[in-house]
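Class, discuss our next protein.
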Amino acid sequence: MRYACGRGGCGACTVMVSKRDPTSQEIRHFSVTTCLVPICSLYGAAVTTVEGVGSMKTRLHPVQERIAKSHGTQCGFCTPGMVMSMYTLLRNHPQPSEEQLLEALGGNLCRCTGYRPILASGKTFCLESNGCQQKGTGKCCLDLGENDSSSLGRKSDICTELFVKEEFQPLDPTQELIFPPELLRMTENPEKRTLTFHGERVTWISPGTFKDLLELKAKHPEAPLILGNTSLGPAMRSKGCLHPILLSPARISELNVVSKTNDGLTIGAGCSLAQVKDILAERVSELPEEKTQTYRALLKHLKSLASQDLMTKAITLSPYYSDLNPILAVGNATLNLTSEEGTRRIPLSEHFLAGLASADLKPEEILESVYIPHSQKWEFVSAFRQAQCQQNALPDVNAGMRVLFKEGTDIIEDLSITYGGVGAATVSAHKSCQQLLGRQWDELMLDEACRRLLDEVSLPGWAPGGRVEFKRTLVVSFFFKFYLQVLQELKKLIKPFPVPVNRFLSALEDFPGTVPQGVQRYQSVDSHQPLQDPVGRPVMHLSGLKHATGEAEFCDDIPMVDKELCMALVTSTRAYAKIISIDLSEALEIPGVVDVITAKDIPGTNGTEDDKLLAVDEVLCVGQIIFAVVAETDVQAKRAIEKIKITYEELEPIIFTIKDAIKHNSFLCPEKKLEQGNIEEAFEKVDQIVEGEVHVGGQEHFYMETQRVLVIPKTEDKELDIYVSTQDPAHVQKTVSSTLNIPINRITCHVKRVGGGFGGKIGRPAVFGAIAAVGALKTGHPIRLVLDREDDMLITGGRHPLFGKYKVGFMNNGRIKALDIECFINGGCTLDDSELVTEFLILKLENAYKIRNLRFRGRACLTNLPSNTAFRGFGFPQGTLVTESCITAVAAKCGLPPEKVREKNMYRTVDKTIYKQAFNPESLIRCWNECLDASSFHNRRKQVEEFNKKNYWKKRGIAVIPMKFSVGFAATSYHQAAALVHIYTDGSVLVTHGGNELGQGIHTKMLQVASRELKIPMSHLHICETSTAMVPNTIATAASVGADINGKAVQNACQILLKRLEPIIKKNPEGTWEEWIEAAFEQRISLSATGYFRGYKAFMDWEKGEGDPFPYYVYGAACSEVEIDCLTGAHKKIRTDIVMDACCSLNPAIDIGQIEGAFIQGMGLYTTEELKYSPEGVLYSRGPDEYKIPTISDVPEEFNVSLLPSSQTPLTIYSSKGLGESGMFLGSSVFFAITDAVAAARKERDIAEDFTVKSPATPEWVRMACADRFTEMVYICPLPLEPPSHPTPWAIFK
């Protein structure tokens, strides 16, 4: 079980809770996120954690075995949660459907794998499996594409299996843990007395009877009732809400009563959403359709409402805000309220929703149940919901709509419309509905209804949540969908009846949740390769099984050491201000608080002049660290932070956006520039010139394991042991050394494994390590510092947002003659890696294209936001989006498909890049052609066009994107690596190297290398950890070269050892490895060797604008197809095909996993991941509730990945390539497929096809880009005037 977000939003802490149902007497199993489950609520329940399911020491459960052997783990931090969600599913359904599997994993986030292998492991348990039958068409995903001569089609040496199902142990439900007998006895004689649990500041009271509950509520009217804790829990954690008394009605059977009558259904307020779903589904199956309109609408809504673990906890209704309120309100639901004074029934009407005193809950009242009446003939009810992503997201807008017609007519007798997400509570459009009574259900009514709804359901420009135009558009778009739905129903009842045009009917279809299918292709090893040689084989991740059992130890899993203290950080609440005074008096008085660490306590250097570890005199951004509190517990330290008073004086100018930075000439470093040819002359000779802008938003790393460090001071010589989650332990070591003013040799950094990094754990861990080390030195105690998700996201920064301007000159045939791109990135308040990112961005801008006349310029902007830093791809994913947008714009102007323009301008022969580095594009062209063929691109392009002709409100788009990704650092010294290999006298081998295990499988690959070189099985080999005491002066594990350079070092060490053993082996060629080692020891031959790799040569001369900055390139191509809903902006990914040039993969399972994971992460960058800041510079999106990384439902319905066969490179270890970053940009194929679909919509509506490219392509951007009559209505109807006290928008974007 892992702690990650604290909000129930990531699933890392999932466990199984089992309870006996008091009605059915059956044992029910639920997956729950422990961060939201109060321990007191578990009275009478059995809790099973991943450790209880199986372990390496006893026996593995089939779920654990299969997720590991299916390569469903990378960093492994999320794996225990995944295991528990699947395990709970299997306890309830031993042979689940694939849809149930998808639903069960909906609340579990993974940042590494891309989800595909996790689903693959789960599908081995499923009753039915589509296998390779694609969507019931009977076609096999292995069928050849358009070109039968494709190398991917020659199957003799192409493998498509990464694991062997037949090797898995079977699932035997009879061997599962039983429900504890003592708990069974408790349920047979349930405790009726009130149970009270006293905490330090909170008292938990759990009454045993309904009467006791009412008495307690009368005695403590302000005490909240807590059941699911999905609302109160996060508020208590993030907002500091404290309730001295909490009432838990979990044992009150009256709140779980379900009553069926002839006219309706009463559901107890204590029923979870999962129970409500089952109840409604049962009722729908029992009653005629005309009576279940409201129930069907509720069921549809529940499908996308929340993840399985939240559904099992969340209660049916919050009186003030609930996702279900709009539907219950239009369905004429009634609330049954009870208090000591008696019972009361109030309708869930506009009066209740508006919070009128006469229709509101009294403090002493509780909601006992909700009555939902049956619908009737000629009555139609629908529900609508649009969120940032398909699953487990709060809605931008949701709605419930109901209409009742006079019998036999289309005359409106009653109409009810309510909306959520457009105000603090659910909003009823009562006036609009009243004015439409008696009208016919026709186009005239539709137009009038939309105008009236926009007038009544108004949102000011500064409304909380922002997205005002989008929300107002959804208000009328939802009504239009309802209008079409009702027309279809009336068509069945009234004949003849005018029906909508068939092209409009696609607006009625929701995107279904589909279990992804696909295939992974790679070249098999040579038939002559010894079976013992693991190189090139899909070997399981070394820690895979430990990940699955929870036995893999991460930094914060290290048990508490003697006299350990906890540290919490105090950060700035101002964006740019002078610190006037700090009052620590109240904080230091809190019991358990030991000390406060300030800049004055630093004996050495406090960072650099421009980038302080701890702020001195002034702060440069919200989230800058000012000092740290040390206390006996984490809770005490955080409590002390709340008592600290800091007085600021605001400074100016405060700059947040790139636009403002350009205006104030605020930059971090000089402009970087590359140029070739004569660009001005070329522009004069072209047929056309297009200019445009591209905006790319930032991205949060969202590694599952937040930043954390444990510093243990030793008793002598100022020695320190530092256990830290980092990609660069040597940098942590150096920073701590300079901060404490002690030699580097006194400091040892240990990295066992890292729960994801993606560049975010290169520089920042050194800051946290140094601050914690100062605390350890000052107090003499070990210090543990673990950041909450909110603090991590607030403090650390992420991917640089980019603003790009381009000017492109081209001929009418699509040939580009001149391209001028200027990019600005938002660097934040300090330099960090921004200059390097700018350089790499400029170096990589040309991507796969040979354009004779180029000018690339880049600047890093200085703003008052946390410093942005390294992130997977290092500028390439942002910058190259500008280049590809140029290509798309040229294609639109020429009337050509974008892929034709890409082909026309692609490198074709051995050539030189803009910085004069020579390369051969043969593999690039092969990847492009293989991708076109494997995806059947040209046939599918025609199918997309045909679909778009037949559908007005749904559009499809398809795009294929090439990639030339440069690997490595632009400096030779950063490519060096070392390794240390020990052979022990029993023949076992310990390998240590300078790389860090981030989930990318570097340790697995290093043992594969050692196994081949020493010619012994991998079982003889072991890697313990990365330690600066074992391998000094290491380079950050980054830039995709970790396995390359460390593999060379391990190879060198092993070859040295084998050369020493040669005489012994020659003397006894038939001997065993163990005999040889024993003989070597007896002959005093050293069995320890240091391996070293001096590095790839790399350099760049920016004065001349030329060099060989990169050792080699990775080539690839991706084709993606999507479908968008023009009315809501939602989209679904239909299919993605990726072809990647991996040359000779060291481990195809790990490499394909890296490609898939990077692709999904890139897809998130370009579609859902959006950082929002307040006008004061405070990050709003500080957790999974607001910041949406892709979930399992975002994986393309068909997802195929192929490694290009028969490719070689002599430079690298065994001709392999580093693939950690390159797949990131291929996620842009989804973005360009979306823009292709948007362009089709705009073309059909006679709107200009060229539009400002903005990433991410959120539902808001897509909807507003698909301009139509409803968006026009929104812009015509003015927004309410902004009050003087709110002159600024709700949110800004970097």
